[in-house]
Amino acid sequence: MARNFLRLMFVALSGFAFVALAAGQEPNRAAPEKKSPLIVGHRGLLHGAPENTLAGFRACLALRFGFEFDVRRTKDGQLVCLHDETLERTTSGKGRLADLSFREVQRLDAGSRFDAVFRGEAIPTVEEILALVGQQSSDSTLIAVDLKEAGGGLEEAIVRLAEKHDVLGRLVFIGLTIESPEIRARLRAANPRVQLARLAAAPDNVEEVLADKHADWVYVRYLPQPQQVHRIHEQGKRLFLAGPLVAGSEPGNWSKAAELGFDAILTDYPIDLQRQFRGVSQ
Q: What is the domain count for the chain?
């Protein structure tokens, strides 16, 4: 897996070289190129590095795309990044994360189960992730914050950390946020500039999202009709695509989403998606 990680990095960086050379050519002034959707790597660089670790997040930012990360709490209330409620699948620990103190969580290895080269990679704190975003990302990099838990001051705590590291404008809140008006209201109360997504489970739900003052992004798992995409943008909201249509290696659906004018795509294969958008052959 470590070799695969290095191969992925090499392939992606080769793509950047291709683009840099192409940039010196005479541009096509007849028809401006449509802007590609922002790329968001699901749990980081999922197939190249341990999920939800700083190693994977750094790789995403180095390759100039964003990432999604999950938020949970330890027994003593520390905000950390882990997808599952339990520890066995991705770390050296056992049992529920919520039963361990932060000090106990710090001792766990979150890298070896992926590959021995990542031995010692830790479960990161939310603050470490936001600090990394503040240091290494650009204003055009979208970071999706997947809330696996909420309440008890969690929403305000994350917003305060985002303010501290000056990254609030680069975040969009998903996870529990997309279906809970209470969570969206608490996040918006913490800072009116926070970007919130709300789920439109089917085309018939889009108008409800457009009417929601606490929804900046329309979060969908399907490909809407062009007129509906136009309507969403006309109302000043942005469109986020996730789910099985684009999570896997889905070149056809990626192309359709770009043609429709989606603003962001969440995928397990961000490098492949990036290469496709840049017109670099596999």
A: 1
